[in-house]
Specification:
Chain lengths: ~525, ~375
């Protein structure tokens, strides 16, 4: 039988190492392009200050990048070490984008990142800019392939189950690559990374401006971040909306749960701004609604319905029953029964095999399930509503908050009144951690919202584990916890140290701390803008 | 689809081998440099010379390891599943070692404190030595067979648990294989240092090769004798056709004392691999002593290719033999992905690997030159 403790520990481990890894990824995705922008200005104008900006923010980039690489290694191992049955069951499809990610993206970013950091004296201006560009391109391409892989977990297109090999097999590679979920997810995710990096540069630059240090340097950095951040926060919201539309199409349960929509409403559905969902009673005990909004967002029409949880569950019950037949015939096929009746029955029901497998949580042989077990498995197909409902809303609120922040920054900067408005600068400093809250919640919504499936409607998470023991998991969780805590302390220490030091860390002799703490930068051609 | 399924299954055995050899030549060099670091560099500047000889490239090199892992996932999912979960604690150990490298390289010289720097130097030592050792140990165990089986739904189960699973891997033959791995990668790192580092380091590297090269040859010869006289191989008695849909439970396997040497009897040209592994390291020593470090480096790349190929050829067509239920063994015929996936991945490699090689060569040439102590001290804030 399924050992719930063991499954829970496996899930906790994957969730923690993945979310920890994603502390470093978004900054890499966005900061790499900010470096490209700064260095392009340097190459085009020849102004030294843009070189200094590229180098300084590049130093912070490198501190962050190191931990991104470290924790990324864990992710590659994690599927094989802890999700061995998953690896066997879907490796034929899921492994391909991962391997291509290595060949096409990791090689690119990793080969050039070393030259970007250490090649300033060895490369010509243009060569170095090209190297920085390749690094940015590589990091973003790697996001593309990993999201193709992840989108396939959400919406497994271009593949079919084979009873002979007992696994999912690819039927059409291009369907996997051009999975509609992958396209919107990719842009939404990288744009979130761009917002993160913009908020990071904006906040640290604001801090220098508040302290009156290295103003020319700080304002130019602030400007790049405000412009890039504005464009990025717009795309994050637009593509977030597009994701909502995709969900209405391919992941109806996730959408219903995020919106706490227990019953299908008459079209166009109302949107719950605030609600307190009660999973036991299967209703919300308070709802503050905006009429029509959900229907418009999810279906882009006023006539289509958005399916509610109860109706989806009813539908799932049929699929569980059909899955029992699929499982029964699969076992016969595996035992060598090649009769036509068995083959036909299996083919007819195999699209519901995953739902049959859900019963394995309650009964050894799903074909023997009782009515009560069928009901249990059916309701097990609904994730816990309150978590998703609230995570989603906090994420969206932060997204709009940053749109406002970048608009205000851009406006005050253009208008020359930035320093007269310290409230904005202070808000920018204190907002630095917020994008991380939003991106982590975003992943939580995407992955927890996929439960109980490892591969949507194909493979339940509890079956996807390795055949390990609770001792193995406790040991590895403790090991990861110790390593990751120490690494985080070291990383944060260096990040704070170098951020506080500012461009003085470059040892050019032109900046604040090297000039005995006088505020204005006076290198030739570097007079502050005012 | 230009290639039939049987051919592709074989080609993927070659490609995984090429990726592993590529890993040894590139990232293996960085690991070897890490192993040598605390010993070959006495002062801080000397150690920085050692570190900066690989600093711009180690990250790109590491992708050979990542891509080899990804390729095994995509091309041999059954192997990826059985090996990574079966060797659970060993894999954790590899990861723990690898953790030290990205941060070690990047953070070490960011602070002046000598204790901080010394600590990271030992971190880089661990990051180079532990993975090299464990990879060798893993190969040593594959050659003996690993205690695992597949259930009727093809889920892999390891037939030992928790710490006992790890301890079982640490048997004398596997440790010898681990020694070969560490020694050959250290030789490679030393050849690189002789080529790229300041004279004082290059001289020490030359001395290290004088000791390490023969160590590889002796240990490799010893492992060969041990395998011949003391370890039974595995032989397939019956199996479905090579181009059949993969079914790892469809064959019959027996243990056979001479099985691991059968391929050399059938294809004498395969003897080239062990010969390279035996003679190569000695030629490396000779070339290094003759002050031809570039040739020594190339020769060592060849001898490592010979050693890795020897392990692969000896076991062929086995990838992961099972000692507890031999019929559950994984072979190149019954562990691969579908025909379509193998085809797509084949083209991905054919297209992207040459591009990768081209820009890798450019990256090395752009950063070429002797790394000197004077240069490191002058460009204190521009280098690691």
């Amino acid at each position: 039988m399924i050992d719930d403790t063991f499954v829970e520990l496996s899930r906790w481990q994957f969730a923690s190492v993945a979310m920890y890894h994603f502390l470093f990824v978004p900054l890499t995705l966005g900061l790499s392009w900010i470096l490209v922008i700064m260095e392009t200005v340097y190459v085009m104008t020849g102004k030294e200050i843009y070189r200094d900006m590229t180098k300084f923010w590049g130093k912070l980039f490198a501190i962050n990048f190191a931990l991104g690489v470290t924790t990324g290694l864990t992710m590659e191992f994690q599927f094989g070490t802890n999700w061995a049955y998953y690896s066997h069951y879907v490796g034929d499809v899921f492994g391909a984008p991962l391997a291509i990610e290595g060949l096409m993206a990791f090689f690119l970013e990793s080969t050039f990142v070393g030259l970007m950091i250490l090649g300033w004296d060895k490369l010509s201006k243009r060569q170095h800019l090209a190297v920085t560009f390749m690094t940015a391109l590589g990091t973003n391409l790697s996001a593309l392939w990993i999201l193709v892989a992840n989108a396939w977990m959400q919406n497994p297109v271009g593949a079919e189950f084979s009873a002979e090999t007992m696994r999912m097999e690819m039927t059409n590679f291009w369907d996997v690559v051009f999975n509609p979920v992958a396209q919107v997810k990719f842009i939404h995710t990288v744009a979130a990374g761009y917002v993160t990096a913009s908020a990071f540069v904006l906040g640290i630059s604001a801090w220098y401006i508040l302290k009156g240090r290295d103003l020319a340097f700080a304002k130019r950095s602030f400007a790049v971040a405000a412009g890039f951040g504005l464009a990025a926060s717009l795309s994050v919201i637009v593509l977030g909306d597009e994701s909502g539309y995709e969900l209405g199409d391919v992941q109806k349960m996730k959408l219903a749960v995020i919106e706490a929509e227990w019953h299908t409403q008459p079209a166009p559905a109302n949107f719950n701004v605030i609600a307190f969902p009660d999973q036991e009673k299967r209703e919300n005990w308070f709802e503050l609604q905006v009429p029509w909004a959900l229907g418009l967002i999810a279906t882009r029409s006023v006539t289509e319905q958005v399916a509610g949880i109860n109706e989806l569950v009813e539908h799932n019950e049929k699929r569980v029953r059909s899955g029992m037949i699929a499982y029964d015939n699969l076992v016969k096929l595996r035992a060598g029964d090649k009769s036509e009746a068995v083959k036909t029955a299996f083919e007819e029901h195999k699209k519901d095999l995953g739902y049959g497998l859900l019963l394995k949580r309650y009964v050894e042989n799903p074909a023997d399930a009782t009515e009560e077990q069928i009901a249990q498995a059916t309701w097990y197909s609904v994730p816990y509503v309150p978590y998703l409902f609230w995570s989603f809303r906090i994420m969206v609120a932060i997204g709009f908050y940053f749109l406002a922040m970048f608009v205000a920054s851009f406006y005050l900067l253009a208008n020359g009144t930035l320093e007269k408005n310290p409230w904005l600068l202070k808000a920018a400093v204190w907002s630095i951690p917020l994008p991380w809250v939003a991106v982590e919640l975003g992943w939580f919504v995407a992955e927890y919202g996929r439960q109980p499936w490892a591969i949507g409607e194909v493979l339940p998470t509890f079956l996807a584990t390795s055949a390990l023991t609770v001792s193995d998991l406790i040991f590895s969780l403790i090991a990861y916890f110790i390593f990751y805590s120490v690494l985080l302390v070291i990383e944060m220490y260096l990040m704070f140290k170098f951020a506080r030091l500012g461009p003085s860390a470059l040892h050019t002799g032109r900046y604040y701390h090297e000039r005995g703490g006088s505020g204005r930068s006076t290198a030739p051609g570097l007079q502050p803008a005012e | 689809m230009l290639l039939d399924y049987e051919t592709l299954k074989f080609v993927w055995w070659l490609l995984v081998g090429i990726l592993l050899i590529g890993f040894a030549i590139t990232d293996g060099m960085d690991m070897g440099v890490g192993t040598l670091l605390p010993f070959i560099g006495q002062t801080d500047s000397e150690r920085r010379v050692v570190i900066n000889s690989v600093a711009p490239h180690w990250d790109g090199n590491q992708v050979w390891l990542i891509t080899a892992g990804g390729a095994i996932f995509a091309a041999w999912p059954a192997v990826y599943a059985a090996a990574f979960s079966g060797f659970y604690l060993a894999m954790l150990l590899v990861l723990a070692g690898l953790f030290f490298r990205p941060v070690g390289f990047d953070y070490r010289s960011k602070l002046e404190d000598p204790q901080w720097r010394n600590a990271w130097d030992w971190g880089l030592f661990a990051g180079g030595t532990i993975p090299a050792l464990v990879f060798g140990i893993a190969f040593g165990n594959l050659l003996q067979g690993v205690p695992f089986h597949l259930d009727q739904f093809l889920k892999p189960h390891y037939d030992a648990w928790f710490i006992w699973a790890l301890l079982g891997l640490l048997n004398p033959f596997a440790l010898l294989a681990g020694l070969i791995s560490v020694a050959m990668l250290s030789t490679h790192g030393a050849a690189w240092l002789q080529l790229r580092a300041d004279d004082i380091i290059a001289e020490r590297a030359k001395k290290a090769i004088l000791f390490l090269g023969p160590l590889v040859t002796v240990a490799f010869a010893l492992a060969g004798l041990w395998l011949y006289f003391g370890i039974d191989g595995y032989r397939i008695v019956s199996q479905p056709p090579h181009d059949a849909l993969p079914n790892p439970l469809g064959k019959e396997v027996v243990r056979d004392a001479a099985a691991w040497f059968q391929n050399y009897a059938d294809y004498p040209v395969a003897l080239l691999a062990p010969l390279l592994g035996l003679a190569g390291p000695l030629l490396v020593v000779a070339l290094s002593q003759m002050n031809r470090p570039a040739l020594a480096y190339t020769m060592n790349a060849l001898s490592m290719a010979g050693i890795i190929a020897t392990a692969g050829i000896s076991m062929f067509p086995f990838i992961m033999p099972s000692s507890s239920v031999p019929n559950s063994s994984l072979t190149i015929w019954d562990a691969p992905s579908s025909h379509l996936t193998l085809t797509i991945m084949f083209w991905a490699v054919v297209i992207f690997l040459p591009i990768v090689l081209a820009y890798t060569v450019w990256a090395y040439s752009a950063m070429w030159g002797k790394i000197t102590i004077e240069d490191i001290e002058k460009r204190n804030h521009e280098v690691y």
